[in-house]
Amino acid sequence: MEKFLIKGSSSKGVKGLINCSGAKNAVLPLMASSILFDNTVTLINVPLGANDVQTMITLLKSLGSKVQIIKNKKTLKITNKKKHKLLVKYKYISTMRAGVLAMGALLGKYNKCSTALSGGCSLGPRPIGYHLAGFKKLNCKYSLNKGYINIVSPSGIKGGHFRFPKVSVTGTSNLILASVLANGITTLKNISIEPEVLDLIKFLRNGGARIYNIGKRTIKIFGVKKLNGHQHEVIGDRIEAFSYLCAAAITKGKIKIKKINPKHLTTELKVLKKIGCNIKVEKSSIELNRKNNLKTTNLKTAPYPGFATDCMPMLMAVLTKAVGKSKIEETIFTNRYMAAPELVRMGAKINIKKSIAFIIGQSNLNGADCISSDLRSTFAIILGAMAANGESCISRIYHGLRGYSNLYNNLKKIGVNIKKKS
Ligand code: EPZ
């Protein structure tokens, strides 16, 4: 069980250049969508170092897809040689929620699938009621048996109308995947417009899907007979970019992130500026230089283009060093503050009341032994450790390795005093 040993300093700023990886939350739906294509799909700028990507590769292979990994080119070539198996096993869903995306793709292609019901995770329950309600509107019926959702559309998926009660990222992707080959027209309302979902729509359109925006959060999908495989470059990972920018923010350092579209994190960059960071953006890069003391702020997470819930744990860590009172309200998940108790072990003052974190920032943190519990909390704890005086030992680092490629090497590259410990 790998651990990170980090010797932090309240006075040494990180410095350096990070090449942003492809977005984990973009590549996972793109990979699942390959099931819909008759011929080869090529994905480039794939974050092969993110363990969730490896899990999705194994999942696709278990269904019968042929997946070729071209490591030095960060490329995946996925070919569907034969009819897929229609069972998505629990072991793929239990560690990677995005496995549910195979549901929409299998339904879209074969009108049938059996997928393990995803359990909860440390963020709280991860229901898929919206996904299932949407499939029902597409002429499907489903039943739950021994932890598996069995879905079938006896007379075939038919276009329908569905409005999401709440914005759901993978819910939106799943319904799109189920609709692109349907008989008829599907209208989806109150959809997610996260960059990762728009990247999936772009990929499907370039493969021949007929998907039209008819409102800020409304699309119309005209079912087509087939999709043609082609090459697609995965967008940069906005959450990873924000994570490393926070490293410079919390340690009074200077970081440049390349291969990222700054427009994908406009709101988050505004917040970093507001708390005293100098930000310089170019077409595909962002540079953060923090010279002054951090300022406090209040914010609320929201679906894109609001402040991303996935960026919140890292900002919470940064705000522990902004002298004075800050407040964060989490509106997406019920349990997104898993990093708080670990940062408190470093001396941070964070008080959680229901969905609100009250932070009293201060100048000093001290290294401590910590346990990470989910993907983004891992990075938040690492941020605390790099800015704390003394050594921190962070266990269960595997949570972070699910979504950050080259985490150890990148941290070393920007000057973090880090060692691995088994
Ligand atoms: C996606 O999760 C991301 N994962 C998450 O990133 C991200 O935090 C989340 O969207 C919100 O942006 C991937 O893209 C693989 P939701 P998803 O459906 O799709 C409720 C990370 O750190 N809901 O948008 O599972 C749900 O409980 C991960 O990379 C229902 O109630 O999230 C939550 O409160 C963590 N019923 C809210 O909606 C449903 O059927 C948003 O969830 C579906 C969702």
The radius of gyration is 21 Å
Instruction: Give the proportion of residues in helices.
Output: 25-40%
State the total count of DSSP E strands: 24
Oligomer: single chain
Number of helices: 14
User: What is the CATH T-level topology of the largest domain?
Assistant: UDP-n-acetylglucosamine1-carboxyvinyl-transferase, Chain
Which strand-content bin applies to the residues?
Answer: 25-35%
Report the biggest beta sheet as strand number plus sense, adding barrel if it closes: 4 strands, mixed
Q: State the domain count.
A: 2
Look at the structure and give the mean pLDDT: 96
Low-confidence stretches: none
Termini separation comes to 6 Å
Bound molecules: ligand EPZ
* Spatial strand order of the main sheet: 22-23-1-24
**Shape designation:** elongated
CATH architecture of the largest domain: Alpha-beta prism
Describe the structure.
By secondary structure, the protein is α/β, with parallel strands linked by helices. It has 2 domains: 3-20 and 236-421, UDP-n-acetylglucosamine1-carboxyvinyl-transferase, Chain, CATH 3.65.10; 24-233, Alpha-beta prism (UDP-n-acetylglucosamine1-carboxyvinyl-transferase, Chain). Helices cover 31% and strands 27% of the residues. The protein contains 14 helices and 24 strands. The chain has a 4-stranded mixed sheet. A 4-stranded mixed sheet has the order 2-15-17-16, covered by helices on one side. A 4-stranded mixed sheet has the order 4-5-3-14, covered by helices on one side. Strand 16 and strand 17 (285-289) form a beta hairpin. Helix 1 runs parallel beside helix 2 and helix 5 (129-137) runs parallel beside helix 6 (169-179). The model has no long low-confidence stretch (mean pLDDT 96). Bound molecules: ligand EPZ. Ligand EPZ is lined by residues 25, 28, 97-98, 126-131, 166, 168-171, 309-310, 332-333, 375-376, 403.
